[in-house]
Amino acid sequence: MIKQSLLAVVLGGTILSAHANTIMQMKTSQGDIEIELYNDKAPISVKNFESYVKQNFYSGTIFHRVIPGFMIQGGGFDQSMTQKPTQATIQNEAKNGLKNARGTIAMARTNDPNSASSQFFINVANNQFLDQAPSNPGYAVFAKVTKGMDVVDKIANTPTGRYGMFQDVPKQPITIQSVRIVNSSNK
To answer: Any idea where the PPIase cyclophilin-type domain is (predicted)?
Structure first.
């Protein structure tokens, strides 16, 4: 206790942890979103997301599926709705105990539980039906929005329509301009 108090005094009242989660900033055409990754609880998904970030993969992609009261999905298509080539798919980590609550970020996937690659979605509501359960492999939560939920809500409420075979596509493209690591956990 004394060591911790001394450390707090030395660091100006802030106690730093060697196990802090990675913080990222996502710049979008609607504003900035700060994201905290769950390095310890979703290491496969976090490593996957960080790999795409380090390759600058997300720059120029759009939020291509937007459903008010549910979620906003991005990270796979450009403005012409052309899907970008991705890395190998990853193992589903939905059994990590994290819930698809408002403000959390999860890996998007197909009906195959282990098919997630670059796409993700931000929950704009508590979506318990997406959580892992005995009869549901679930969608793996790997991060949460720590700042900019107003931007997420603005995106969620944008007018949408059809674009070819796609539904719920914003009528005006909402672009991810960049995603960068602000503070790394060094894991």
So the answer is: 31-181
Region of 160 please: left (phi>0), alpha (psi -120 to 50) or beta.
beta
Q: Domains in the chain, ordered, with CATH?
A: 23-183 (2.40.100.10)
**Nearest-angstrom CA–CA distance, 24 and 180:** 6
Phi and psi for 70 in degrees, rounded to 5? -135, -75
- Using the 8-state DSSP alphabet, how is residue 167 labeled? E
Cβ count within 10 A of residue 31: 13
- One-letter amino acid of 125: A
**Which two structure tokens, joined as six digits, stand for 21?**
């989660």
Over the stretch 60-88, which tens digit does the pLDDT of each residue have?
999 999 999 999 999 999 999 999 999 99
For 33, phi then psi, to 5°, come to: -130, 125
| Digit-coded pLDDT (tens) for 9-58 | 444 444 444 458 999 999 999 999 999 999 999 999 999 999 999 999 99
Other Cβ atoms closer than 10 A to 86: 15
């108090």: which residue's tokens? 5
What is the DSSP secondary-structure string of 48-63?
HHHHHHHTTTTTTEEE
Read off the pTM: 0.89
